[in-house]
Backbone:
């Protein structure tokens, strides 16, 4: 009798395995997006898809990832290949300059940011000194030069898309005991010429801009 069901084509049986993987990833992204709405403070940290292929993650990353781990991964991975070491990339380098908008106690912030674009997408690395030990910072790609409105708005791959990774490029880091930090983040899309500056903010005062680097 089972063979006699012309009205029920067995679509699921014919679907290639790759499709179900894509479906699973979409589900993860949707889940992540839902979490963002609920957890405002973590808004800058969601969107685990930014690092791209499964090959870029550990072998069991998919099995063990929680939304929280995804968030920290997407805001940067200190062990990722830094932008200036990405093979075959077009590399831009900028020196951090202090901004007039910086809060007290940040006069010693110095460092370098690198923006690499390759077939793998975009890699951004920042290396900073003069941070407050134990203090958290957030940094972003911006669309204007540092001299123009302190870098202007955040760069977005899709201008009408969300203000969160992976549609924006965010790096989170904390000053170590010596006030230093180095962080790298990957995104599977290229910024093209749209991201021209890199700006560091205190994590607890995102409207505050400490320093900016032009690419
Ligand atoms: Cu910013």
Residues:
């Amino acid at each position: 009798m089972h063979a006699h069901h012309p009205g029920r084509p067995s679509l699921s049986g014919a679907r290639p395995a790759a499709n179900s993987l894509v479906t699973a990833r979409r589900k993860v992204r949707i889940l992540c997006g839902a979490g963002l709405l609920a957890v405002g403070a973590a808004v800058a940290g969601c969107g685990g898809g930014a690092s791209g292929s499964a090959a870029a993650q550990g072998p069991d990353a998919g099995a063990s990832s929680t939304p929280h781990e995804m968030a920290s991964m997407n805001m940067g991975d200190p062990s990722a290949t830094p932008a200036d070491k990405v093979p075959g990339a077009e590399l831009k380098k900028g020196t951090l300059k202090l901004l007039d908008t910086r809060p007290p106690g940040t006069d010693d912030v110095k460092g370098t940011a690198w923006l690499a674009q390759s077939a793998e997408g975009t890699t951004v690395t920042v290396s900073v000194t003069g941070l407050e030990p134990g203090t958290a910072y957030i940094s972003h790609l911006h669309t204007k030069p540092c001299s123009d409105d302190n870098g202007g708005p955040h760069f977005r791959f899709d201008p009408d898309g969300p203000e969160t990774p992976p549609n924006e490029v965010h790096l989170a880091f904390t000053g170590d005991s010596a006030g230093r930090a180095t962080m790298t983040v990957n995104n599977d899309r290229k910024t093209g010429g749209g991201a021209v500056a890199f700006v560091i903010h205190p994590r607890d005062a995102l409207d505050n801009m400490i320093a900016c680097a032009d690419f």
About this structure: The CA atoms of residues 92 and 186 lie 15 Å apart.
